[in-house]
């Protein structure tokens, strides 16, 4: 007897239905009438809202966050008119900031890695499976150990060494490679501290994975510190990179249970599983336009 | 040195701000313009939407579910006019079903229990803390072992024995006690099977907690069966009671890890922690008007 | 139809079989032959080992930790002879420290609380159910709000106010109440910092519950700090109290998921569930003689 | 500034210290003196016990399970003499069954897969990282879609088609390939039902991953069934394959939370993460000689 397995959601086949779908993210000072303004503008353009999540951080006049997924027949053609209406209704009318993304257009994600492959390969494997709406135009590393794996998957790999004096030159080289080619940069255990200047020049969001449950064990060697403190759980934190190291807005966190019998190497190994899972969720949510930054926090809708 | 502890959210103090807030639940066939219709109706009555979650089960013409929390100055006075507008706009205009609840009016919850006290006492304790927006007008049991605990907490207790031949009479007595006094009934490990007739007559939703991860181990003795099968996790399931035992729409589930060293009694003990946690979440969500039934499923917004 | 519920493990009924069972905890420098020495000594006294867990923190000459549960017919009578043999074999022979506890003798646990009742009531309820092998000879609080609940459960309550100048007098009074009456002290959200002198004088282990995932958010106001930092998980930590606040050996930790929509009060409420669960596990393990301290770590067997 | 990353536990470098370590698994009818017999035998051969876990399923005369890790200088040379002593002391003396494995000898694991790659690639990646003490002498599939990935990792791949009439021939071919070459077979989402005859002929343990939280959703299409039932958690189960499909002894299980908004395809995608994690843990524990079968249960020490 043969069991016929339903193949994993062939997203390629899904792209067609996604073709006319888009996400609208809106953020700003809460005022009465915002939901009406958004839904009316969408309705006037004959867009049908598929899902809508709205959150206000205070019942009386807080900050307003909204994510709407809608379907609009002939989105490609209709988009610029819709954007003009949104500009008038939301921007001029209410002083809101907003962003529109077509669901059929995957985000272009550059991945920076060093010698560890667990976060890198997990992202590339999920991309190949169609789990994350992204393309990966390039992987950059200050080492070359992951080059073969990356190229086997058909993805360009660039080796940009970065030691002491070369650091500024390395950042220049990376900025050059990324310019206009990517929508987001993911630091998949990239073991170099990037300068604030780099973050400013790169011009797109940068997501980092930290191998601890922040704000515990800030800085280097978190697994060693966790072992010394005798904690019973270890964790990982995905956050937007900012100039203040380990202080950027947190997108996602998770933990795994450990015991006294786990060595620091065991913590590192078990932590790797949490790191890759947490980073994959953070990157997925970012690419699905679910994450909005507000000060040191994120709102994930 | 004295540490001043912030007292747990004194909801009493919160009731004032809640006074003008309400929840609107809407369900029906999805059609373009529904979000606009809701938000426009609310805006016309000067209601400000605090949060809104909307879900449609298919991108093209599925079923529409929406939960909106809004604030309307002078809700008590304005309510009937708003309801009339909703009736016209949502009911007549779109054939939607909807329900409006004032947040300041807690649900009236009757609890039925037997000899186990873990689910019962956890609910009563959460009610006393102000964690669940409910009042408990009565506890009914076919045993009297929990009577003192219940009455110590200031809650009326009724002993309704129910053995073999008395079953129908017991159901009559319970229906009589509940009639017009409660908005929802919670079976907190009530070890009597209620008839379909009872469920029909009681006229309000009935929430049950089953001591297994349904649909595994349907029926009696789930912990014994779990031990025999050698599972590594045990669970609990809160669901709306229906005439088909253990088949009602699931509201919430959770599990806890067990090992070969746990006896059936250990499973029962560890399971009790999951049962009370799962039931408390389900009752909270129901009382916060977050749960919508649709066939054998629930949508929790 | 009546469902007969198996009553929760009536531990009272279990005490008889536990009568001849004991736990032996052993700790010291690892050397070849330790397991043989322990098992031979037990076998010579006709004790049958029911379970045994042994852990050494390095393969070559680390520290040795062992927990053995055994059954010895007529333990009461045979105990002193066995202890003499253990003293010779383990103490003199190997320089090990060890401790023998009869399983039928529950630990005497004093609970110190303030105004929050969630940890306190959960421990008392578990004690009444027979889930934790302990008796509670007294509850002490610097407030009197929990007095009625405690006394309703048949447990003596002592009100020992402790503000500014009275602090030393309060500690004197507590030491006086505890002296020779208890085996362990549990701080169930007791919001007073105890002096190192107090910890020395009290002479038994003191277990504290901290309302954060230590070492994150050390000190006061962890839920507020967690909200400000925008974490996606909050936690609780049970640890032995030491003179260095929040630095004692960790017994147990756990976390719960939160979102941007949770206010600081929500974090406090959700955190309360984790706090009581974590503290209950830590107290249970301590009372079951599963926890051994070694420097800043605990070994839980 | 360069952050020096501690490379992931280079197990290659660890193999030397592991050279003289072994695991002894013992199972049988509990009788007084068993721990002494084991520890005395080991001590007489100058083996130092590093860790020991023992479990008996009843306090009075149940079944005895023990796992001991020990270090014995010159294990290769000393092994046969030790085994002879164990045969006499444990086998003849107590009627126990036992098994000795050198830690430095990884298990030989054959993996059978179909078209899904998530479990397969995760196992191969963990093997390459040195996380699981195993070698993979071959991957066999009834499809060829995973061939390139497998061979890129340097592992032999055999395509053994298996449709309707070919089924017996396919099983013959697989038995032939496996014979004497492997210590355990892992079905990594191998979508063919293997005959009881195959399981008998293959002569080594076979581990399967089922894509549900058994015993819920036995049989085909568990994600579809889970969607229809509206469960709030989905799971995966790793178990030893037996002739009774989905009924073999469970090694490990886990779950992940889902919502009403997840489609059957989403469940499949999220389930894949649980499947690979659960299977990896089960295979690791098996290869570390932690799992003992007893009837329909497993004891994991």
From TrEMBL, chains A, B, C, D:
It catalyses: (6R)-10-formyltetrahydrofolate + H2O = (6S)-5,6,7,8-tetrahydrofolate + formate + H(+). The gene is purU. One of its GO terms (molecular function) is formyltetrahydrofolate deformylase activity. PANTHER family: FORMYLTETRAHYDROFOLATE DEFORMYLASE, FORMYLTETRAHYDROFOLATE DEFORMYLASE 2, MITOCHONDRIAL. The keyword Hydrolase applies. NCBIfam families: PRK06027.1, PurU. Gene3D superfamilies: 3.30.70.260, Formyl transferase, N-terminal domain (3.40.50.170). Catalyzes the hydrolysis of 10-formyltetrahydrofolate (formyl-FH4) to formate and tetrahydrofolate (FH4). This is Formyltetrahydrofolate deformylase. The keyword Hydrolase applies. Keywords: Hydrolase, One-carbon metabolism, Purine biosynthesis. Coiled coil: none annotated. It comes from Microbacterium elymi. It comes from the Bacteria.
